[in-house]
C-alpha cells in the first residue's frame, strides 16, 4: 500500500482493504435470538403506546415485540410490514432516537429505551431470510397506476396499490430502483446489497413493473401519464442541490455531498474510491454527517463539518453528531463559507464567524481559513423536475393530508412533497397513505 | 448484627436457614460446601429402605417457567428419593455431623407404610448423631405410585399412624413434611399432631405440568416421547405455601405446633414473611439450585438488618402476623382507600388505564397529553392498577380518614363494620 491518510491530494486506498472493510461493516450488529429475547422482555406493552404514535408509519410496536418475545418473529415481521413494507430498511436507518425510541416510556423511566429499531430488524431479517412474501394481491381491479420515482415513497405506494389489485408501473430516471435507499443512505447502515435485495423481495407481491432510465420531463410527460393511467403518484425526491453562493465554488473538488455518497454507494470496491486528505463538509444535517463520517472511514486525515448556526440547531440528531465526533470528525459551528481559494482545485476555504442576533444570523466580520483539498456541500437538496402546473409550497409539491396535489388524479409524497420530515420512514408512510387514497378514489 | 441463632424443636442452628431435602443435600460434598457458605442446617436428601436404591430417569428431570430476562420462576422435577446406597449415605451423614457440630442435620425418610420398615430405618440411623428426622409424606411422583410419599400424605389416618410408629421407635425430634396436593392442609397437620409430631414442615412440591412440547405433543420434561406430572417449586409456589403455613398457624387445633416453612423462599424477605406467618424456621431448595449456595449470605445479612431496624429478636418475628390473618367475613367493610398516581413518577405507559378501563371500574382518566388520574367517584380501590404499574410506588393506595365523604358511594367513611353485621347479609339479619 503506497497511500496513507497523510498522502496529499485526493487519492484512493488510504487504508488497507481490510481496514476499509471493517470500517464499512454493519455499523450496528444485528441482534441474535438471545439478545432479541432479552431486549423484547423490556417492553411494557403500553396502552395506546407512545412509541407507536411516534412512528410515522404507526407500526404496532408493542404487538410485534410481544410476538418476538413469544418466539414468533415471523408474525412480528408481518405486523411490521402491514404498516411499513420497507420495515427492513427503516429498522436500519431510522433515527430512532428522535422517533419511536425517544417516545418509549423506558426512555422516560431509565434513559434506556426498548431497542425498537434493532428488534424490528431482527423480526424483518428473520422473515426476509426465508424468502417468503407475507402478502397476496387482491382480485385484479383492471386499473393502472403510474408511479414516478422508485425511492421509498414510490415503492411503498406501488406495493400497496399492487396489493389492492391494481397494475402498477414505476418509472425512475436512474439505472436502478431504490432512490436514496440505493444511492444515499450511509453504506454502513445498509450493508451487503440490502437495498436491492429489499426491492426484489418487495416486488414478489407481483403486479409491479419497474422501468429504469425513464425521467419525467425528458422521456415522459405528466399529460401522457394521465392519459394512459387511471392515477399518477409522484415521488421524485429532491434531485437538486443548493449552492454555497460563495466565490470560487466552481473550483475542482468542490462538489455536492450527495454526489460523493452516491459514488461511494455504487462503488464495487471502496479501496479504489478517491478521498481527500483534508475534507471540509458544509452543512448540519444527516447528509453532512454521512459524508463526513464516510470520508473519515475511507482514510481522510482531517474531516471537518462546518455549520453556520449553533450545534443545537443542527438537523442531525445528537446521536448522529456523537457518531461523527467519535469517528474523529471535528464539528465547527457558527461559521459560514465566504470564499473558496485555490488555483484550479480547492486548497483552502474561508469562513466568517456568525452570531445570532435579533435580526437573525449575522456575520461578525472575523474570518478564518481551513485547509481543504475537498469541499462537500450538504446544505440541502431542492426539488427539480416537478411538472409544470403543479402548485408548490415552500419549494415542494403542495399536497393535502392524503397526498392529493392541485391537479386531480395526481398524488405526490416523499421528499418532493410538503408535510413531514425528509426521512425514509416518512416517505414510506406518505406513499402508503396516498395509495390508500388512490385506491379509494379509483374504486368509487 | 442481630442474633440469628435458631432453636427449632430443640434443634440448634446458627441461623434459621436450612436447605430442604433435595439435590443440594444429596451428599457429603454438597452439604459441607453448603455449611461453608453459611447454611444453618440441612435436611438430608430423603433416604429409603435398605436394599437396591431407586433409579432415576437418565433424561431430563426438570421443567421450568420463566419471567422476564429468563428469571426462573417455577421449577418442576420428576426426581425420586436418593439413588445412592443407604450405607453410603449413613456413613457420610456420620462424618459430616461429627465435623459440623454447630449445624443442624436432619435426616429425611421415606419407607413403605408398615411398622417394621420404619422401625428398621430408624434403627439404621440411630447412631448418626443426626438432630432429627423429617418424614417425607410429600413427594408427589414416582414414590407415590409405590404407596409412599404423597400417597401417605394425602390420608390423614396414615400420617397419624406412621408418626406414632416413629415416635415409638425413636427419641429424635420428628418433623412431618406435608404435601400441598390435598384440599385442606389443616387435616394432615392435625393428624401429624395427634400422632405426636414435634413439628410439621411444608410445603413439598405441587403436582404440575410445566410445559408441553408442541412438536412431539408430550409434557415436558420429556422422556422418550412421554412425560409425567412433576413436583412444582420455586418463587411461583410461595403464595400457596404461605397460605398453608398461615392456615396451620391459626387453626386452634394446631396452633403452637412448630412449623418449618418451605416453598419458593428466595430472599431474606421471603423468609421473614414465612416466619411472620408462623414458621419457626425456613427451608430452601430452588433458590439454591438456581443461584448456588451463596444465596444464603444475602438471606443472613438481610434478615439481620431487618431485625436490627425493627429492634426485634428472631423469636419476636415468629407468628407476628398470624393474629392478622383472618376470614373475609371479619374484614372491615368501611375501610376506604383510593388509588393515587404520583405524576412525578409516572412514565405514561398507560397500563393502569388499560387494566382499569378494559377490565375493572373505568376509574382512570387519560388526557390527550397522556396524564393519568384516578377518578375518586369510580375507584373501588381494587389495587389492580398498583399491581400492573411497572414503576414501584408510583400508584399508591391512600387511606381515607373517618368521616371522609366517598364520592363513589356518597357516604362518609364509617366505623369498623364487617359482613357479619352488614344489612345485605341475610344471615346477619336472621341472627338478630
Ligand atoms: C445522504 C443522505 C442520507 C440520509 N440518511 C437517512 C437516514 O439515515 N435515515 C432516514 O430516515 N433518512 C435518511 N435520508 C433521507 C431519506 O433518504 C429520504 O427522506 C428518502 O429517501 C425520501 O424518499 P423519496 O422516495 O421521497 O425520494 P428518493 O429516495 O430521493 O427517491 C426519489 C426517486 O425519484 C427518482 N427521480 C427523481 N427525479 C425523477 C424524474 N424526473 N423522473 C423519474 N424519476 C425521478 C430518483 O432517481 C429516485 O430514485 C438521507 C438522505 C440523504 C441524502
Ligand atoms: C429436584 C427436587 C428433588 C426433591 N426431592 C425431595 C426429596 O427427596 N424429599 C423431600 O422431602 N422433598 C424433596 N423436594 C422438595 C423440596 O424439599 C421442597 O419442599 C420444595 O422444592 C419447595 O421448596 P422450594 O420452593 O424452596 O424449592 C425436591 C425438590 C426438588 C426440586
Ligand atoms: S413505549 Fe417502549 S415499553 Fe411502551 S410499548 Fe413502546 S417499546 Fe414497549
Ligand atoms: S446441569 Fe449439569 S448434569 Fe444437568 S444437564 Fe446440565 S450439565 Fe448435565
Ligand atoms: S401504570 Fe403507572 S407508570 Fe403507567 S401510566 Fe399508569 S401510573 Fe403511569
From TrEMBL, chain A:
FAD/NAD(P)-binding domain sequence ranges: 143-431
> Coiled-coil intervals in this record?
none
Gene Ontology molecular function, alphabetical: iron-sulfur cluster binding; oxidoreductase activity
Q: Could you tell me which InterPro entries the record lists for this protein?
A: DPD_II (IPR028261), FAD/NAD-bd_sf (IPR036188), FAD/NAD-binding_dom (IPR023753), Helical_ferredxn (IPR009051)
Q: Which residues form the signal peptide?
A: none
Dihydroprymidine dehydrogenase domain location: 22-131
The record's Pfam families line, in alphabetical order, gives:
Fer4_20, Pyr_redox_2
Record protein name field: NAD(P)-dependent oxidoreductase
TrEMBL record, chain B:
Q: Which SUPFAM superfamilies match?
A: 4Fe-4S ferredoxins (SSF54862), FMN-linked oxidoreductases (SSF51395)
Instruction: State the GO CC annotations.
Output: cytoplasm
Identify the residues that the record assigns to the 4Fe-4S ferredoxin-type domain, covering every copy: 337-369, 370-400
The protein's GO terms of the molecular function aspect are: dihydropyrimidine dehydrogenase (NAD+) activity; iron-sulfur cluster binding; metal ion binding
Record bears the keyword Hydrolase: no
State the UniProt keywords alphabetically. Iron, Iron-sulfur, Metal-binding, Oxidoreductase
Give its E.C. classification number: 1.3.1.1
- Reactions listed under catalytic activity: 5,6-dihydrouracil + NAD(+) = uracil + NADH + H(+); 5,6-dihydrothymine + NAD(+) = thymine + NADH + H(+)
Stretches of the chain forming a coiled coil according to its record: none
Which EC class, in a word?
Answer: oxidoreductase
Task performed by this protein? Involved in pyrimidine base degradation. Catalyzes physiologically the reduction of uracil to 5,6-dihydrouracil (DHU) by using NADH as a specific cosubstrate. It also catalyzes the reverse reaction and the reduction of thymine to 5,6-dihydrothymine (DHT).
Summarize subunit and interaction data from the UniProt record for this chain. Heterotetramer of 2 PreA and 2 PreT subunits.
Family of the protein in this entry: Belongs to the dihydropyrimidine dehydrogenase family.
What protein name does the entry list? dihydrouracil dehydrogenase (NAD(+))
> Per the UniProt entry, what species is this protein from, by scientific name?
Fuscibacter oryzae
Amino acid at each position: 500500500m503506497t497511500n496513507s491518510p497523510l498522502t496529499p491530494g485526493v487519492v484512493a486506498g488510504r487504508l488497507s482493504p481490510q481496514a476499509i472493510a471493517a470500517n464499512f461493516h454493519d455499523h450496528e450488529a444485528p441482534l441474535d435470538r438471545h439478545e432479541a429475547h432479552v431486549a423484547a422482555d423490556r417492553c411494557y406493552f403500553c396502552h395506546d403506546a407512545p412509541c407507536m404514535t411516534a412512528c410515522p408509519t404507526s407500526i404496532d410496536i408493542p404487538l410485534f415485540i410481544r410476538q418476538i418475545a413469544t418466539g414468533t418473529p415471523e408474525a412480528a415481521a408481518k405486523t411490521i410490514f402491514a404498516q411499513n413494507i420497507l420495515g427492513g430498511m427503516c429498522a436500519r436507518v431510522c433515527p430512532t432516537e428522535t422517533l419511536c425510541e425517544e417516545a418509549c416510556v423506558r426512555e422516560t423511566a431509565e434513559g434506556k429505551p426498548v431497542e425498537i429499531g434493532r428488534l424490528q430488524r431482527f423480526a424483518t431479517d428473520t422473515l426476509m431470510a426465508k424468502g417468503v412474501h407475507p402478502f397476496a394481491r387482491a382480485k385484479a381491479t383492471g386499473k393502472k397506476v403510474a408511479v414516478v420515482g422508485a425511492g421509498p415513497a414510490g415503492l411503498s405506494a406501488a406495493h400497496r396499490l399492487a396489493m389492492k389489485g391494481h397494475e402498477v408501473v414505476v418509472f425512475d430516471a436512474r439505472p436502478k430502483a431504490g432512490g436514496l435507499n440505493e444511492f444515499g443512505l450511509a453504506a454502513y447502515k445498509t450493508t451487503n446489497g440490502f437495498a436491492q435485495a429489499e426491492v426484489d423481495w418487495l416486488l414478489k407481491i407481483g403486479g409491479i413493473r419497474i422501468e429504469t432510465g425513464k425521467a419525467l420531463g425528458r422521456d415522459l410527460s405528466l399529460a401522457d401519464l394521465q392519459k394512459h393511467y387511471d392515477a399518477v403518484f409522484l415521488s421524485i425526491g429532491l434531485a437538486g442541490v443548493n449552492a454555497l453562493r460563495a466565490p470560487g465554488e466552481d473550483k475542482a473538488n468542490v462538489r455536492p455531498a450527495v454526489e460523493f455518497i452516491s459514488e461511494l454507494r455504487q462503488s464495487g470496491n471502496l479501496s479504489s474510491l478517491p478521498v481527500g486528505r483534508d475534507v471540509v463538509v458544509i452543512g448540519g444535517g444527516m447528509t453532512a454527517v454521512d459524508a463526513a463520517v464516510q470520508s473519515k472511514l475511507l482514510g481522510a486525515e482531517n474531516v471537518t463539518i462546518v455549520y453556520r448556526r449553533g450545534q443545537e440547531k443542527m438537523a442531525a440528531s445528537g446521536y448522529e453528531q456523537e457518531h461523527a465526533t467519535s469517528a474523529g470528525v471535528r464539528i465547527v459551528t457558527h461559521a459560514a463559507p465566504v470564499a473558496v481559494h485555490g488555483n484550479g482545485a480547492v486548497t483552502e476555504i474561508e469562513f466568517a464567524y456568525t452570531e445570532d442576533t435579533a435580526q437573525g444570523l449575522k456575520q461578525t466580520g472575523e474570518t478564518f481559513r481551513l485547509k481543504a483539498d475537498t469541499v462537500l456541500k450538504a446544505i440541502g437538496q431542492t426539488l427539480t423536475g416537478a411538472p409544470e402546473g403543479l402548485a408548490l409550497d415552500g419549494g415542494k409539491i403542495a399536497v393535502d393530508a392524503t397526498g392529493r396535489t392541485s391537479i386531480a388524479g395526481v398524488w405526490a409524497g416523499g421528499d418532493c412533497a410538503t408535510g413531514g420530515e425528509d426521512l425514509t420512514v416518512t416517505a414510506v408512510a406518505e406513499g402508503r397513505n396516498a395509495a390508500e387514497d388512490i385506491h379509494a378514489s379509483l374504486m368509487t | 448484627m442481630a442474633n440469628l441463632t435458631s432453636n427449632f424443636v430443640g434443634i440448634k442452628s446458627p441461623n434459621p436457614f436450612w436447605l430442604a431435602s433435595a439435590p443440594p443435600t444429596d451428599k457429603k460434598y454438597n452439604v459441607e460446601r453448603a455449611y461453608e457458605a453459611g447454611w444453618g442446617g440441612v435436611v438430608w436428601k430423603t433416604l429409603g429402605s435398605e436394599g437396591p436404591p431407586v433409579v432415576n430417569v437418565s433424561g431430563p428431570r426438570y421443567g421450568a417457567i420463566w419471567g422476564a430476562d429468563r428469571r426462573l420462576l417455577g421449577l418442576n422435577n420428576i426426581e425420586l428419593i436418593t439413588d445412592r446406597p443407604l450405607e453410603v449415605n449413613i456413613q457420610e451423614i456420620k462424618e459430616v455431623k461429627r465435623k459440623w457440630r454447630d449445624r443442624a442435620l436432619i435426616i429425611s425418610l421415606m419407607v413403605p407404610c408398615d411398622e417394621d420398615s420404619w422401625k428398621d430405618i430408624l434403627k439404621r440411623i440411630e447412631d448418626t448423631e443426626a438432630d432429627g428426622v423429617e418424614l417425607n409424606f410429600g413427594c408427589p411422583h414416582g414414590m407415590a405410585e409405590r404407596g409412599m410419599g404423597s400417597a401417605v400424605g394425602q390420608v390423614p389416618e396414615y400420617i397419624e399412624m406412621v408418626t406414632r410408629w416413629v415416635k415409638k421407635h425413636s427419641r429424635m425430634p420428628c418433623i412431618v413434611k406435608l404435601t400441598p396436593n390435598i384440599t385442606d392442609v389443616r387435616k394432615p397437620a392435625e393428624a401429624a399432631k395427634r400422632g405426636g409430631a414435634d413439628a410439621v414442615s411444608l410445603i413439598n412440591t405441587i403436582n404440575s405440568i410445566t410445559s408441553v412440547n408442541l412438536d412431539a405433543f408430550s409434557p415436558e420434561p420429556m422422556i422418550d416421547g412421554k412425560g409425567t406430572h412433576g413436583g412444582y417449586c420455586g418463587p411461583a409456589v410461595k403464595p400457596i405455601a404461605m397460605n398453608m403455613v398461615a392456615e396451620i398457624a391459626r387453626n386452634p387445633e394446631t396452633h403452637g405446633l412448630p412449623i418449618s416453612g418451605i416453598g419458593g423462599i428466595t430472599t431474606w424477605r421471603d423468609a421473614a414473611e414465612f416466619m411472620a406467618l408462623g414458621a419457626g424456621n425456613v427451608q430452601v431448595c430452588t433458590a439454591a439450585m438456581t443461584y448456588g449456595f451463596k444465596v444464603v449470605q444475602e438471606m443472613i445479612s438481610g434478615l439481620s438488618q431487618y431485625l436490627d431496624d425493627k429492634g426485634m429478636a428472631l423469636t419476636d418475628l415468629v407468628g407476628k402476623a398470624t393474629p392478622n390473618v383472618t376470614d373475609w367475613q371479619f374484614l372491615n367493610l368501611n375501610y376506604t382507600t383510593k388509588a393515587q398516581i404520583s405524576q412525578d413518577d409516572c412514565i405514561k405507559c398507560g397500563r393502569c388505564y388499560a387494566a382499569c378501563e378494559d377490565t375493572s371500574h373505568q376509574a382512570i382518566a387519560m388526557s390527550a397529553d397522556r396524564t393519568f388520574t384516578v377518578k375518586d367517584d369510580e375507584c373501588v380501590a381494587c389495587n389492580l392498577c398498583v399491581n400492573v404499574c411497572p414503576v414501584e410506588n408510583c400508584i399508591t393506595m391512600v387511606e381515607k380518614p373517618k368521616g371522609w365523604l366517598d364520592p363513589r358511594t356518597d357516604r362518609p367513611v364509617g366505623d369498623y363494620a364487617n359482613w357479619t353485621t352488614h344489612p345485605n347479609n341475610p344471615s346477619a339479619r336472621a341472627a338478630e
